[in-house]
Structure to design on (531 residues):
């Protein structure tokens, strides 16, 4: 009534525009009200009416035509929306979803395979993600499209589709113009599968606690197999056999470490577990936590140490804010384990990070005084800078120079041509060791803004689902801590071009869409946000 208090349109038009007034409109198969026979003849548009002769014509009616076309599209959109009748709406996660045991088992294995990059660096996650997305698309078009209650990807889903199309067109233009296409350029089209993978989660995840338990068991197995016990804290950096190099193994162990913390918190909160089962969960968590911590320390990745420290600080603040006694006890136990690991490996920390810390203390003030590139040039010319830091600065300086030439939209895959004329030509790498520069060089500020928005939106969906008690609080803590950890690790490494980074981005966005769909089912998403 408040929306109609000031009339902006004729009554018959205004009452139908439910998206403007917030009315809930119901469609019926037969007329509820019967009208007189004379009502079939219009007094406005009929033969005797003067409306047709009085209305404006030609270009003067363009505005009215646009408005009517918009209204018709919105009305069509209403047909695609689930009805506001929760008791009659189909629940895709329960009543109208596949129940075949073998299919659910295969889907669970595919979801675990999507996460397998934290155990072994391979492209397994790609095949698993594609299979889940394909099954979800087939299911939607065969079943859900023809039902009144269906999960809709929303305008963010269409944004992902549009982004993927945009990336494909730019890659095609460069390829047909230069016949050059670098490695890993296609990963920026992966948002094409994010929304449908989230729908696959909605279809097939019946018992998330079991999936998480299997994730922990497999993490224990793979960490135990890839831990070099003979070299433990002996000052020798091991060469992992399940990953391409120690940095990658360290990032994977960081992900597992953070997930294990939340598994411990979740186990502490559960009241449906018997004492013996809960003790087994505690034993499993402790073993995984210790092995992950050992791998993080002995792999000697300074970027992972910093990222993990800041992620743990965030978790500590969140835990103190909630003030749950069990979570505080778990945090205290973890703090003891971490402190013991630091004391035991203090020689490794000092020998690995001291030179870098001294260099950073010199570089940061120089950047603020003279700018990024001049400071980088001076550090590169200095003999006091560690070799590893100097190599990264060379890569970053060359990448920034390319980005400066294409700041808004980036150079797409044609950056490879410009890379041949870089300043520090002796560098043979074509990986920038900075995930943000990887995106910026290819797709500029637009690309950075797209991914920043996508994961901010996804995080918000998880938070809203947690507040509505649709996912466990530990799921939100795990999500935000791993997201922050990943965002920090790509400051010094191109982890978004690694299998585990690609898999994490895929899973994180898909989980955001999953929470969006669950909220749709509970009528917690405003219809205007669907499109």
């Amino acid at each position: 009534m408040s929306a109609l208090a000031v009339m902006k349109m004729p009554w018959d038009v205004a009452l139908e525009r439910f998206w403007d007034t917030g009315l809930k409109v119901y469609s019926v198969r037969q007329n509820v009200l019967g009208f007189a026979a004379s009502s079939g003849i219009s007094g406005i548009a009929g033969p005797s009416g003067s409306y047709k002769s009085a209305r404006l014509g030609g270009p003067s009616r363009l505005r009215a035509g646009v408005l009517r076309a918009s209204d018709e599209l919105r009305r069509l959109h209403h047909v695609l929306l689930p009805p506001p009748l929760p008791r009659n709406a189909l629940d895709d996660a329960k009543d109208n979803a596949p129940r075949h045991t073998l299919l659910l088992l295969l889907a669970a294995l595919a979801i675990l395979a999507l996460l397998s990059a934290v155990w072994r660096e391979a492209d397994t996650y790609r095949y698993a993600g594609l299979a889940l997305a394909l099954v979800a698309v087939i299911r939607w078009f065969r079943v859900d499209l023809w039902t009144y209650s269906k999960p809709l990807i929303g305008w963010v889903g269409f944004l992902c589709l549009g982004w993927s199309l945009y990336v494909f067109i730019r890659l095609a233009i460069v390829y047909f113009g230069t016949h050059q296409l670098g490695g890993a350029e296609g990963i920026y089209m992966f948002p094409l599968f994010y929304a449908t993978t989230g729908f696959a989660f909605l279809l097939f995840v019946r018992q998330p606690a079991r999936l998480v338990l299997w994730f922990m068991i497999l993490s224990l197995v793979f960490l135990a197999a890839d831990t070099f016990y003979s070299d433990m804290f002996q000052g020798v950096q091991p060469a992992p056999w399940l990953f391409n190099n120690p940095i990658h193994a360290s990032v994977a162990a960081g992900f597992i470490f953070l997930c294990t913390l939340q598994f411990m918190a979740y186990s502490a909160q559960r009241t449906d577990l018997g004492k013996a089962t809960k003790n087994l969960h505690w034993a499993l968590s402790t073993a995984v936590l210790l092995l992950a911590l050992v791998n993080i320390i002995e792999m000697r990745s300074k970027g992972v140490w910093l990222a993990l420290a800041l992620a743990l600080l965030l978790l500590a603040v969140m835990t103190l804010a909630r003030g749950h006694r069990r979570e505080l006890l778990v945090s205290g136990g973890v703090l003891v384990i971490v402190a013991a690991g630091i004391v035991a490996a203090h020689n490794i920390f000092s020998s690995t990070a001291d030179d870098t810390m001294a260099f950073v203390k010199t570089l940061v003030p120089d950047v603020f005084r003279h700018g990024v590139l001049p400071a980088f040039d001076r550090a590169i010319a200095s003999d006091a800078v560690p070799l590893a830091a100097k190599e990264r600065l060379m890569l970053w300086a060359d990448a920034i120079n390319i980005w400066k030439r294409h700041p808004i939209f980036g150079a797409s895959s044609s950056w490879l041509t410009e890379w041949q004329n870089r300043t520090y030509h002796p560098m043979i790498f074509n990986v920038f060791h900075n995930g943000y520069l990887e995106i910026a060089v290819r797709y500029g500020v637009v690309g950075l803004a797209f991914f920043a928005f996508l994961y901010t939106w996804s995080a918000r969906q998880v938070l809203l689902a947690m507040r509505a008690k649709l996912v466990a609080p530990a799921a939100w803590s795990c999500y935000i801590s791993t997201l922050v950890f990943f965002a920090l690790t790509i400051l010094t490494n191109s982890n978004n071009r690694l299998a585990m980074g690609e898999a994490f981005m895929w899973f994180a966005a898909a989980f955001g869409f999953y929470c969006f769909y669950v909220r749709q089912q509970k009528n917690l998403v405003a219809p205007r946000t669907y499109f």
